[in-house]
Hints:
The structure holds two protein chains of two kinds.
Chain A: H1 2-6, H2 8-31, H3 33-43, H4 48-71, H5 75-98, H6 117-140, E1 144-145, E2 148-149
Antiparallel strand pairs in A: 1-2
Helix pairs in contact in A: 2-4, 2-6, 3-4, 4-5, 5-6
Chain B: H1 5-35, E1 53-55, H2 57-66, E2 70-73, H3 77-82, E3 89-90, H4 96-99, E4 113-116, H5 124-134, E5 140-143, H6 146-152
Amino acid sequence: MKRLLSNQKLGLVLRLIVGGVFLYAGILKARSPEAFADSIAAFRILPLSFINLFALGLPVLEVVTGLLLATGFQLRIGAFSALFLSALFVIALLSAGLRGLNIDCGCFGAAARSGSLGIALGRDILLAAMALTVYRQAVISGGLCKGTRSRL
Amino acid sequence: MGFDGEAVASKWGKDLAGFTLLAVASACLGLLINQGREHPLPLIYVIKAGQSETVGLPEFRKIVESENAIILDARPALFYRRGHVPGAISLSREQFEKEYPKRKALNDKDRLIAVYCSGADCKDSGMVAAALVKLGHSRVLVFAGGWDAWTGAGLPAEAGP
Lengths: 152, 161
């Protein structure tokens, strides 16, 4: 198992998948920040004054994270960002679920209905696990992956 | 799965710092892009009238049982008298303008308010909620299932004025 998780090829594939998901989700959200702000508001976690800042900033952060992962530039930061964000999404979805909120996750913009919160939660846990594997590999290989320097 | 702790722990602080920088830069870039949009998003989120948040039965029940929130019955007063959610106040949609000033509990505009009407198809709760948001109430929810869902679940009711 440990050897499999350290496999460079697997790392590359996972990094492209995670990067692709972040790019896709970020672009969809960036296209309609109003709708994304409504999705954030529905979670009732952030105070009103932070919702729009999040709605504007998060999609950009997702796109940048996706680009870092896909290109391998500053891979450690990109992988850390993917791990941090997916963990954040998992916590937000869990909290919404525990409070019995009947909302759409807004994961891929409001237009794309993403099914139940449970499905979204499962998907985000999978994403977090993949991001963790990529981050772990990036740390162990000292930030060198496929010949790309990615340390701070 | 082992996480090869030391290698990760020694540098994750640096990664966190890098991520923070990335997040701040993204927020700034997001704000900048927003300024270039045809209709920029305002900096502070505005709850849209007529689009109040809805809650399901489990959460509504918790709100009712907490006794901290104001529960509003948006149905005509006759229905309210025949039976309503325990602790609810009547504020029907038809009589809204006349009755609103009399409801002293509504003076505190930051208190949580949950509105319901007869069932999932009625519009009264949404309209009352929208009117309350317009009047400056900051935390207004609509219990979408309404009276039908409440009684359907066999939950207690109160009758009278």
